[in-house]
Amino acid sequence: MAPCVNFVTGNANKLREVKAILEPAIEVRSNPLDLDEVQGSIEEVTQSKCRRAADLVNGPVLVEDTSLCFNALSGLPGPYIKWFSSEIGHQGLNNLLAAYTDKSAEAVCTFGYSAGPGHEPILFQGRCSGKIVPPRGPSRFGWDPIFEYEGQTYAEMDGAQKNSISHRARALKKLQEWFRDHAEGSVTAPQ
């Protein structure tokens, strides 16, 4: 029987990508709880969300936090990309780098897994280096149209291509390896 986790997200695009990458090896059940996000480092934000989710679900949970780090801005907007993006959009994110020649950026995805309340979160992080460009491709998912990796924005890639190279895919590969090595048969089904 495959291990099963509650993926705590209200983002249908994230859920679709996570299910496409993990299943059927790890069953992913959606739980769209709205979790408060603390201010802090990428890791602190994910750990806090994971602890809160485990308490609320009272079982095994998986949470995710995505960051977009502009090298010219010493890593900002980082874990606050969701808020930056919703306020200033793709053009505003490009404008943040207008005064800099360095348009390089790093997409960072951090998953937190907890077996349940009282269990310390285990973090799995994936990183993908690229650069910030004017929007190209469909605007279906967050900042995908402005993050370019090897000549294509995430938005210009089909799902399978993105899911093979993205920051999220790299983090989930680490999670899959951990489950394969440590959690086989020891993960209880969510309530």
A few lines on this structure:
By secondary structure, this protein is an alpha+beta fold. It is 35% helix and 26% strand.
Distinctive features:
about 190 residues, alpha+beta, Maf protein, eight-stranded mixed beta sheet, globular, nucleotide binding, magnesium
**Structural Rg:** 17 Å
Specify the helix fraction band.
25-40%
Tally of discrete structural domains: 1
Main beta-sheet strand count, sense and barrel state: 8 strands, mixed
* Number of helical elements: 5
Which residue ranges are poorly predicted, with pLDDT under 50 across at least 5 consecutive positions? 184-191
Distance between the termini: 16 Å
Run of helices and strands: EHEHEEHEEEEHH
Named CATH architecture = Alpha-Beta Complex
Shape: globular
- Derived from helix and strand composition plus strand pairing, the structural class reads alpha+beta
The overall strand count is: 8
Question: What's the pLDDT, averaged over the residues?
Answer: 92
CATH topology: Maf protein
How would you explain this protein's 3D organization?
The protein has 191 residues and is of the alpha+beta class. Helix content is 35%, strand content 26%. 39% of the residues are buried. It has five helices and eight strands. Strands 1, 2, 3, 4, 5, 6, 7 and 8 form an eight-stranded mixed sheet that branches. It is globular. Helix 1 (12-22) links the parallel strand 1 and strand 2. Helix 1 crosses helix 5 (167-183). The protein has a single domain (4-183), classed as Alpha-Beta Complex (Maf protein).
